[in-house]
Amino acid sequence: xxxxxxxAIVLAFIALGELVSIWSKARIPGLLVAMLAAFAxxxxxxxxxxxxxxxxxxxxxxxxxxxLLFHMGSLIPLPTMIQQxxxxxxxxxxxxxxxxxxxxxxxxxxxxxxxxxxxxxLAGGIVATGLxxxxxxxxxxxxxxxxxxxxxxxxxxxxxxxxxNFLLRKFAxxxxxxxxxxxxxxxxxxxxxxxxxxxxxxxxxxxxDMLANNELFVLFMILVGGSVATLLAIxxxxxxxxxxxxxxxxxxxxxxxxxxxxxxxxxxxxxxAGVVAIVMAPLLTASMADVLAALLPMVTILIVGAAGIxxxxxxxxxxxxxxxxxxxxxxxxxxxxxxxxxxxxNEVARSVGRDTEERNKLTEAMLPAMxxxxxxxxxxGSVAIASVLVSFL
Length: 393
Description:
Layout: H1 3-23, H2 30-43, H3 51-55, H4 57-72, H5 78-83, H6 85-109, H7 112-122, H8 126-138, H9 143-146, H10 148-155, H11 157-178, H12 180-200, H13 209-212, H14 215-236, H15 240-254, H16 261-264, H17 268-285, H18 288-320, H19 324-332, H20 340-352, H21 356-390
Helix pairs in contact: 1-2, 2-10, 2-17, 4-14, 4-15, 4-17, 6-7, 6-18, 6-19, 6-21, 7-8, 7-10, 7-18, 7-21, 8-17, 8-21, 10-18, 11-19, 11-20, 12-21, 14-15, 18-19, 19-21, 20-21
């Protein structure tokens, strides 16, 4: 099969998932639809099992995975993360307790490889799943374990999103009925003013507009960042994925590269297609027996991991003196991330607020914490967890 035909087939599944996700307002995860459809077509013999290899998307992933992590470091400005430090603490606590609980339960029940295969994807999103899939495949584990990260990624949002909706709704109603909403709205205005003031400050490096807005130059800078991270990984023994993330944060903070760098270079879409392809690949080559063998470990990982995230989030919420309903919602963003965290928050604000002004105040009170929590877990924390765990295989 010609690579362009294979790539079009893979992107057709991804596009189908995106359409269903948009239609369902993210209630049905796009990745779930894309991967189930690809698995079904492969099982029925309608597409070859090596469609991913023939599409060359795996090679694109190999080139762009570290630059993609460099890009993730540019997603949220450092001042915003500092202002929302409580969300960062809660998200990290939820992930760490979940990983510890998974290690204590899954390793003796199944194996250490099962624990590694499930921990990274559960604590984050598709990039962590791609790193985990790549690591366990290279380690030569059984095919029943190789499909586990994809299955966890497919199913993790299904229990987490309704639970978040319930908790966030309780928090919003409490704010509305207690009179706290106006106070929080005033605090949000102060934070916004401080963020604008911080953004107005001149950064260490100021690129001329002709370079900062040039797609090819920005792409070159991203690839340089990924290359530096890859080089530094050899002497430091720190995974290149973690170094790429750190370098992205630093580079954006000093002004060397713009925020949302890969989007500025118009290369984010193809990079994500490569990640989805890597995650989807085990399902195309797996047998039904492999998938059935992975179901019990998957369910165990989802239950234990979700419990760990909520326990860790609850403890951290108490320590930072937030309401548990908001804190545990922030912790649960690890299981679905953006855009579901954005859509859930807006949906709750829209349904609880009695007028436009109240809805806007509710959104301002909840959305920054939810977005920063999701970034901390899905984009940063889970990458670090996945990178460290696969290194032990």
